[in-house]
Structures are given as C-alpha cells and as structure tokens.
Predict the structure of Insulinase family protein.
Amino acid sequence: MKVMSRAVRGLLLVAAPFALVSPALAQEPAAQTAIPQVPAPKAVQSEGEVPWLYEGSDVPVDREWLFGKMDNGLRYAVRRNGVPPNQVSIRVRVDAGSLHERDHEQGYAHLLEHMLFRESKYLGQAEAIAAWQRLGATFGSDANAETSPTHTAYKLDIPDIDRAKLSESFKLLSGMIREPVINGANVDAERPIVLAEKRERGGAAQRIAELTRQTFFAGQRLSTRSPIGTIETLEGATGPKVRDFYERWYRPENTVIVVAGDADPLVLAGLVEQWFGDWQGTGEAGVAPAFGDPVAPEGTQRAAGSGWPIGEIAVAVEPDLPRNLTYAVMRPWRKVQDTIVYNEGLLLDAVAQAIINRRLEERARAGGSYLYAQAQQDDVSRSADMTFVTFAPLTNDWKAALVDVRSVIQDAINSEPTQEEIDREVAEFEVAFVNAVETASVEAGSRQADNLVNAVDIRETIASSQTVLDVFQGMQDRFNPQEVLARTKSLFEGDVVRSVYVTPAIGEADSGALKLALASEIASDSSARLAASSISFDELPPVGEAGTIVSETTLEVLDIEQIDFANGVKALIWANSAEPGRVTVRVRFGAGYRAFDAQSAVYAPLGEMALVGSGLGELGQNEIDRLATGRKLGFDFAINDAVFTFTAQTRSSDVEDQLYLFAAKLGMPRWDADPVIRAKAAAELSYSTFSTSPGGVINRDLEYLATDKDPRFATPDPEALKGVTPEGFRKVWEPLLRQGPVEVLVFGEFDRDAIVEKLRTTFGALEPAQPIAPEIAARIPAFPQDTEEPTVLKHRGDANQAAAVLSWRSGGGMARIRESRQLEILVQVFNNRLLEALREKAGASYSPQVFSDWPADLPGGGTITAFAQFEPDFVPIFFAEAERIAKGLATNPPTPDELDRVTEPLSQQIRRASTGNQFWLYNIEGATSDPRRSSMLRSLLIDFSQTSTQNMRFLADRYFGQGAPLKLAVIPEGQELAALPADYVPSALPEPAPAVPAAPAAEVIGR
C-alpha cells in the first residue's frame, strides 16, 4: 500500500480550444475507420479471487482496477480513467534491472531498453520515435522508458485514442517487447548513444553519487551495479551477449502490463491478452540473484552512547561542490506483509520524521551551523531499509554542524514529543489525504499507472485515496507521544551506520575523524521543539478597508468574469467543476525583470529564495507555517520577463485564506533578516557547482550572454554577493511590491459570490499600486551583435565533456503571438532533424534540444536555442550541423510527414491540457491589461496544428537566414576549441520538397 510514497459553444474550427472541453467531442470515434475486433479476455480474475497484487494482504482491494493473470505467467492490471479524456497510458514493467546483470553485463539492462526502440518486429531501423509521434505521442514524455537497479519499464501515453490507434499501439509495443531485433549492427548503432548518455552524466556530481553508492552498499550487489554500466562492459557488448540477457529476463512470467485510460477495461484486458497471451520465453530463464544485506565490517565496535556499529566512511574532496554530509542507519530490506497494521506503522514513521524535520528547520532558521538538514526513511532498491540524515554545513566546522543536527535528533529519540506537535503534523497529513479524496476524480491515468508499477517494484499493494484516508482516520488514537517515540527510536536503530562527507577543502576531514564524530555520545537539544498551537486567520488584521467594485463583465471565452476594483486591481475568476475540490490562484503584479538595473540585479534571484520567507504583517516564517496547519496553502513566487507572480494550488475550502495571504504580502510585508542571510549563504555555497559540468556553465551564463551581458540576467558570483544585506534587500523589494498593475486569477471549484466578497476585502482593500515608469517598461533585453566568432567558456568537469549552443534572436509580445505558435512547429521540426543528425546517425549526443522562448509580456526579447552535449572535438561539427539544418529549413522545408510528426503531438498536448484549469489560466493571464490574450485563444489549436510549407519557409528565412546566431562553446579547462575536421561531411537530409516561393508575411502569418 505504501501510503506515504507516493461552456460548450457552437464555434467554427478557428475556435477549437473552446470545444475541447466538450466530452462529446473528446469521445467521438474517428469517422470511416474500421474498428479492429478485440477478443474477450479470459484471464481476468473474478471478484471472488484475491487479485495477484493483494495476495497476503488485508488492504482493501481497489476495485477500479481489473486484474488478470495469464497461463504464460504474465500479469496485468487495467482500469478506466478519463483524465485527460481520450488518452490511454500503457506501462510494461520487466522484472530485470542492473542488479540482475552478470559482471560482464553491466549496463546491458539499460542498453537493451535503448535497443527495443532501435528495431523490432513491426518497426524498422530507428522508426520507433517517428511511429509514436505519428500516433500523437511526444518522444521523451509520452513515449519513454526507464531502467533502475530492479526493473525496466516502458511508458507510453497515447492521446486521441480510438480502437484502431489502441490496437496499433499494442501491436507496436508487443513487437518491441517480444521480438526486438538484437544483432551486432544494432548494438553497434546504439552503443555510442548510451556512451554519450554516460558521458553527459559524468563529472563531480556523478563521482559523488558513485562513491555514495559504493560506500553505503559496501558488500552488497548494489555497490557494484549502476544502470548506466561501465565503458568496458558496454564496449564489450555484442549481439549474442545482449540476446542472452534478453532471453533470461524478458519473459512473460517476469512481466507486468498496466493500462489506465479512457476505454472499456475489458477491451484493454482483451488487447493485453491478444498481443501477449501467446508469448513464450526462449532459452533458460534467469534466477534472480540475492541482493545482499547491509552488514557491519568484521570486528566493528558499537559506538558509545548511540550504540551504532560504525561501518564504511568516505570523505571526498571536490573543490567545486559545497559541503554536504550524509549518514545512514541501515537495516536489511525484507518483503513485508502489506497489511493495514503495517501501513499504520508507516504513518507513525512519517509523523515522527515530520516532527524531526520541522525541528531541524527551526534550528537552521534560528541561526544554526547548517543551511538545511533532513531525516528520511527509504527502502532502496530492495537492498536496504535506511534512515538517511543529510545536511549542509555553513562553514568548514562540519563537526559543530554534525553535533547540532544529531543533538536535535537525539532529543527526539530520548524524549516524547508533545501531543501538540503530533497533532500539528497529523493535521498536515490529514489535509493531504482529504485533498486526495476530493480530487480523486481528476487524478491522471498516467499517474495511476505509474503508482501501480511502483507498487509491483517494491512488492506492495496500492490503495484508493479513500482507503488511505480511512486507515489514517481509523488510527487516530495511535498518534500519541508513546507510540511516536517508539517509532522514532526504531528509525535510528540499525545493523550498521555509514557516512559520506563532501568538502571542497583538502585536509578538512578524514574518515577517522568522521567515524569518531559519529561514534561520540551526543547530548539532547530541546531548544528546537516548537510551540505547536495554531494561529487562526480570524485573529489576523484586515489588509485594509474593503474596496469597491466598479465593473463586472464577462469575457468572450468560457464565461470567465472580470471584476474591477476602485483601487485598480482587476480579477479574472472562473468558477467551474472541471477539477473537483481544486482551485488555482495566481497574482500578477509589477515589472518582473524590467524592475532591476545593474545595481539591484543581485537581489532578483535572492528574492525568489527569500521574499516569501521574510514574512508578512506580524507573522514570520514559523508563524506562517503554524497558520497553514491543517490547510492546503501554497506560496510560489517567480520573476518573469515582465511581471512578478504568486501562485498556489489550493482547495475549495482554503481559497479564501489563500487570497488573504497573497494580498497581505503585498499590503503589509514583513522584512525578517534571517531568510535573506540564508538565501545569500545558499547562493554563495552553490555558485562554484556551476563549473563542474558544461551544462552547469550554460545554465549559469547563457541568458547573460544572450542578452548582450545584461547584468539583470547574470548569476551573482561571490564577489557580487558580498555586498548583499537584509537592509539592501528591503530597499530593493519594498517598492517593487507596491508596483502595479495587479491582476488576480482564481480558477476552479469555489463559491463565486464568496470569492468576489473575499477579493473585495483583500485585494480590493490594497492601496492603489504605483504605475511602472516608462523607462522601466521599455527595458527589453538586447541581443549581441558581434556573433561571428564563438564565445568559449571553460568548465572544471571531466576532460571528455563539452557542450555548445546556437541562439538566434526571435520576437515577443501578443501582436505576433500567432507567428510564435507557427514558429514552435518549425522549432520542433528543427529539433527532430538535429536529433536525427547528432543522436541517431552520429551517436555523438544523447539528447540534443531545440527550444523557443517567446515572451508574451514583452514586444521582443525572444530567442531560439539549439543545445547539445558531446566530446570536445565535436563542438565545431555541432556548429556546422546546427547552422546547416537551420538554414536548410528555408531551402529544404519540412516534408508533410515531418510536419505531421510535429503538429499531431502539439495538437494533442493542447487537447489534453485544455481539460484542466491551469491551461486556461496560463493562456488567459494578463488579459485585463491586454484583451488580445482572450481573443487570440480562438486560434490557439489551429495555429499549433495546421501550417504550410510557405509558412515554414518564411519563418525559417526570417529567423535563421537574416543574421548570425550567438555561438557558445563550453570546453574543459586546459583545452582549446577544436577546428572543423577537414574530412567533415554534412549529415544527409530528407529529400527536399518541391520549391515553393516564400510568401510575404501578410499572406502567411495571422490567417
């Protein structure tokens, strides 16, 4: 069960998005399509049988699932789910991961995952990506796979499903799973892609991950098995060797198929049986190896006081990584009897951990010696039951930080928590479980399928959200100090304790010193215990005098209402029942990045980290936490191109309190110093981590370079952070919270009249906002002019890692928003061509990407960016290939099939997303200032789903043919940028389409 893991209008096609909310349209079968016959399933387990997932359990069966077990041993679970409408999510889980590999096979499970997409019975060489795109699936999100130490899972989300597409999907998938083409040629073709993936994951972070795995799981199989494998074993892979691994493990008795989607469960079960019922394994079946247990080294003595047997210890020096210390109390993993009593124990564990973590956070907020700390129990890869403690020391005095963290935990082990502390955490869990019940009808089928796959992996059951709530509410008498203390003690008892400390400084620590520090007795520190009494919203002062409504109108889309207040605040509200119990609130205000200049720029990223934590009114961060007890409230803050936003997803019963919080932050902000100090420390500690990989350097500097070194987009370095003070933070941010215009959006299930009244007493009560000065409004990011030669930056990661970027100037604003949508089609075609050239043909890069950024709130400043990682010598080839492909989009425009492979997934993304409120909120926000946002919704679907060769040629010429892109290369320190090889030969392109003269903009864009 693992309860803790886990307005239809008669419009023409041009107004298609509005029709998307019509269930009739979503369910309508394709006309003139022959419906394939699906045989009735024979292996469905009857209600009188215990479903295979629930054997040995008393957890109530979730009857929404239909379970089956076939004669060949394959098990399946299917259910109807209409979220989003007309989609089916298919998961195929094979009980074989890296822990099942022999020594010479390391990496084979993952390599085989790639191979199944390379070629199979119904799909030729490299045809899988295109095939799933033609069915409307986006590669990488709708069509993907994963390999873990314990399993390999194939994931497909097929939109706009009908019986023909459903049958075709099962057919293609069955060919991939049952009859992949495994030969030397395909191994040789896929090996460089896997090696590229391994290379891109390298660097300091990967070294630490490897060291941590080897240390914590010393003596166990997991210590020597990573899903990515080793260079030696991958280079030694051959067709017969990989085939041998496949035959041992890819067998029906090792396979579970899970399907959740908008279809009759009996049809889904019938399709599973039709395409997999006669599958028989070949060769000798594999026998799962023992994963081993965590065992203390021979002769290990138990530490005084704690009683811990201290095992393996590692200290790693990584000059570019911040200090981080993790220790783990380890116990053997055993398959459990997944009973209600067992799950009650998990809930007690969760409450115990929540109390500890809240105390650790309180200690950090109060000026502790660490930036953050957390305790968490986890079952890792069916290899160990572990309680992790992780923290980041603020200075090189890691011993003091370790004492601080351990003393807080020791207090939790030694003394009972108060009932008030327990009640506070129980209230937090209850609101989460109640919310899950309230929103169960809108839980996505893909999530339900993933949850069941996870349950199979951890050898437990699943439960409905109502069952979870019933179990929780039925054990209230167990949430008492005695039982919570007992579970706390058990969390920190184990067979061995292991630890890894990462430091940037040589000589700061060694394994002996760390072992001694862990073995030492520790005193309890009760100072972090919290007063848990809640604070009522009724006790809080009003934001101001209730405002006056001056206008109430209805937009031309979906009956969304606009409410205007006398103080200039404007609200867009849409009360609907599309997502029961759920409400999304967003507040837009101010000028966003335009508000900053060279002097204040350093405070922008610190604001994203510290503005919310600095409090409001008489409430600091701890008081806000107490205020939120038993409620689902959020407070996400973001700085966008031209506006600041507060966003929260809340419940129908809590939305009024959510509005008060947001309005109070604008109307009566507080300026506590500690959150600013912590944010500054975090920024200082993390800055050097950007240098550990080429991708990190690009994340640090690309936006700065692409805006012609605009200081607003520079990542603050330690020198810039030196001058940061809480007083300076307030001086910058206080006037920004008073800037308008202010727009509030409330979308979801709520009482319309109650929300209008709450808006009147919160946002309507604010003082009128200050207008944005013209010189600030005019700040549009520039684009560098001198881009003929590449900018070369250096990283301090692995010597075989490099990355490069090409970035072209595009546009922005609503005046040409339809052009931006058509541009997205072109960019996706570019992405497919780059993927074909660099990954499928050259095997040089694992995941090259092309993406477009078109700021809707600014009349310019957009970019199109192509990015990839590879070996350093490939950088000039990337520049040549990416530029050739970009320019070729005008002279060699996309073929009809290329366009179909892009427009079908894009249109399906829109259709699926349009069933939720956040889609409409995202597309309508800003409409109170720019009414074009609502009118342009009418063409949204058609703009993304229909285009022409003329449009593509015109856009390619406009954006790729008129100016040189910014070129950025990131190579290792000590190396120089390579030259383009003399024997370089451009990749082959598809056959060019018939020449079509480029049409002028008026004939192409905006139709």
